[in-house]
Amino acid sequence: MSTPAPPLARRLGLGDAIWIGLASMIGAGVFAALAPAAAVAGDALLIGLVIAAAVAWANASSTAQLAARYPEAGGVYRFGRERLGEWPGFLAGWGFVVGKTASCAAMAMTFAAYVAPAGWERPLAIAAVAVLSGVNLLGITRTARTAAVIVAVVLAVLALVVVAGTVTVAPTGSGSGAGPAVGHLGEGWPPPVGWLGVLQSAGLLFFAFAGYARIATLGEEVRDPARTIPRAIGIALAIVVGVYAIVSLVALSAIGASELAASHAPLADVAASSGWEWTRPIVQSGAALAALGALLALIAGIGRTALAMARDRELPAALAAVHPRSHAPWVAEVVVAIAIIVLVAATDLRGAIGFSSFGVLVYYLVANAAAFTQPVAERRMPRWASAAGAAGCVVLVATLPAASVIGGLVVFALGVVSRLATSRYRGGPRLTP
């Protein structure tokens, strides 16, 4: 007879959950996503941001509604399994664990690319993964405190970018000459670049702040989850959308869409456009720190999802172990850390993780479908919002490069084959906490 696995501990308050959500969303994406988004949308970048924010709101609302009803580890994996069945839940969990493990390796290498001397990128990336995994192993409150420090510093750096960019714009109100004035942004309907470009920019920006589900993934560790999780998701998403809107507006006004699109370090160029060249290394360091914040929260989220899947024997049952003192899923987190380190040591995934984007959209598609099935008594939002979120995911999938779609389908096919091949070994009761 199986011994019940110990539960995770409810130690996170509202502020803790918000900090973790912010760390998940204010990652390196805010420092890098504006350039490719401007390249496809031009001056209509802000329209893409509005569309991305609308899709994110619908997805976040579905996630929050489900988390209030199922406050367990695993997030959308658990929601999909409870509302839609084993296969949808498995596919959401599989796509998240596999895709985001690859994303973690990419984030670690992104961090190292900002700060490591030539030739030392991989060792520094591996060290970052080891240190952040160690923080997570100390318990979720340590994760939240570390996330708070990282996010506070990154927000200060972004504030510096905004001030510097505003100084650039202030004398004429029309930027540096590299692009149109603020008043011209978005004129014309449809935008000159066409709706495909706008939707592609929305997809890029959506992925940059799609980490709000990390709060739901930690649902078993939040106090008063039915009240705290929806509030934390809503507040964190509102802050991040506001930050992106302000930074995007200042960037377009300071250096214009064409220069923004061509930049390899867009926010550093925005800050330096004021003549404050001394800000460049500060902004670059802020980008590196933001990558660490996203990596910290993501490692925690993968560990909790793997824990939930192990409880249902979708992954090896050993991954369901919880440390008696720190109440962290220590086996899952150690295995995840090892997998990330192996990927960092073996390959550079920064240019080859498009399948993760596909997996994210499948993940949120499952969340919206699950929320759509909830009865009226459990609903916090109209059913049409869940349908709109699902439709948004499908539309954004259509904007992905073909290689990303093919890569995503391969990853999910491997998951299906793996689950079918191991079905005979998944017997036994669920390892309930």
What report would you give on this structure?
Keywords: Cell membrane, Membrane, Transmembrane, Transmembrane helix. It is found in: Cell membrane. The chain crosses the membrane at residues 12-38, 44-68, 89-116, 122-140, 147-173, 193-212, 233-257, 286-307, 328-346, 352-372, 384-417. The chain has 433 residues and is an all-alpha fold. It has a single domain, classed as Amino acid/polyamine transporter I. The chain has 17 helices and no strands. Helix 6 packs across helix 17. Mean pLDDT is 88; it is low at 172-190.
List keywords for this structure.
single chain, about 425 residues, mainly alpha, Amino acid/polyamine transporter I, globular
Q: How many domains in all?
A: 1
Which regions have little confidence, pLDDT < 50, spanning 5+ residues? Answer: 172-190
- Give the CATH topology: Amino acid/polyamine transporter I
Order of helices and strands: HHHHHHHHHHHHHHHHH
CATH uppermost class: Mainly Alpha
Q: In the CATH hierarchy, what is the superfamily?
A: Amino acid/polyamine transporter I
How many DSSP H or I helices? 17
Strand percentage, roughly?
under 5%
> What number is the mean pLDDT?
88
Characterize the largest beta sheet: strand count, sense, and whether it forms a barrel.
none
